[in-house]
Amino acid sequence: MNTLNPEHYMDLVKRALAEDIGGGDISTQCLNLGDRRARAVLKAKDNGILAGRDVAAACFRELDPDASIEFKIEDGARLRDGDVIMEIKGRADALLSAERTALNFLQRLSGIAKYTFLMTQQVYGLKSKIYDTRKTTPGMRMLEKYAVLMGGGTNHRIGLFDQVLLKDNHILLAGGVANAVNAARKSLGKDAFVEVEVETMDQVREALDAGANRIMLDNMSFLEIEEAVKHIDGRAEVEVSGGVTLLTVGTIADMNVDVISVGAITHSADALDISMDFQPE
I need a labelling partner for 192 at 20 to 30 A (CA). Which of 67, 81, 87, 127 fits? Predict the structure, then answer.
């Protein structure tokens, strides 16, 4: 998913524009611009990583199919304060009406890419990989997971359909870790990849004995993580999750875990500051 397919965002773009414009952009209509054309640039006002340029461009083209858009920077590239991201030429009324929606997408996705990049820099050169989670904005999962990739992170499962991850409530309803793992194997076959979330060392041992492929250590202390990694000893992949921050991720990575999943890179990323400025024709 290193490139975005329009099917991942066009319906969302249309709904977002409709939400903002409603029955009409009355501020722009007051100007009686008619067919007047204009030129504008989207410009970074902070350092970061670009993500979502095609989505922003689609906002302008949805209102003016004849708009001319010239990209200056690729998704995944570093942004510096003042960098021009794209130049748009088209109907002035369309540019004004699409401005906020285009910026909302671009700022949100670039903010996720930046936060992900900062996380990956903390583990650079180490075994651990930064993974995202399903803690995404409803309706925007594919876009936000794409932004994670642009920031150098790795996608965890996309949804409930593409990987087994047995969490605390699954384990409770199954009657224990072993029962949950065995049920997954019975349902999906002995070669299915099964991940199990655990909270105690007893559960670590049970998951390992049951043949889990990856064991997620959920909200464990540093000492508990060290003990678990030592006990697992390479017999299963180790994932750490829960409350990971820029201040703690490096310490966790030093413990030689395989995966560090961070919900915050999607649910708590600050929007990157980006503006749209009209230019003289």
Answer: 127
Residue 262 sits in the same domain as residue 174: yes
Catalytic hit among 54, 62, 83, 197? 197
In this prediction the pTM is 0.96
Pairing of strands 84-91, 37-44: antiparallel
Is 35 catalytic? The answer is no
Give the tens place of pLDDT for each residue, 175-221.
Answer: 999 999 999 999 999 999 999 999 999 999 999 999 999 999 999 99
43 is catalytic: no
CA contacts within 13 A on the Cβ side of 53: 23
Q: Residue 1: what pLDDT?
A: 63
Query: What are 2-27's pLDDT values in tens digits?
Result: 789 999 999 999 999 999 999 999 99
Q: Based on the structure, what is the number of domains in the chain? A: 2
127 flagged as catalytic: no
DSSP state of 270: P
Q: Which domain holds residue 15?
A: 6-111+270-279
